[in-house]
Amino acid sequence: MENVKKINNELTVAGQVTLEQLQQAVSEGYKSVLNLRSPDEQGFISDEQQQAQALGLHYINIPVKPNEISDELTTEVLEQIDQLPKPTLIHCASGMRAGALVFMNVATRQGLTAQQAFEQAQAVGFDCNAHPQMKQFFEHYVSKHSKTS
User: Could you tell me if 31 and 37 are in contact, meaning their C-beta atoms sit under 8 angstroms apart?
Assistant: First the structure.
């Protein structure tokens, strides 16, 4: 799949996926999809849930708008990531929101600092400085919710 970053054996991040990519995900053993896009976003695929479920994937859509992200919404997304059958494909339009939330999940579950999570994210190709508002929220959330704190 293009525009895809495997974070670990359970979690993979992508930009908007196509039906072909969903089919490929099934053939690669993925069990679920978490879509972080809002239905009012340009390029949102209105029948993605039906397509995913027809392929046997668990499917959840939790709209996350970067300028409206909150602790409560983040906690809801991270709990869904924990509960979904693995491996899970998590996507948004470009992969930025999905990457940030997956690394928040990894950091808070593994007791990493925000800096350690940023280093892991950069190692797989995320530019953590490209979205200062998201980076600031990430630091706030991880420092507040990581198991080490």
Answer: no
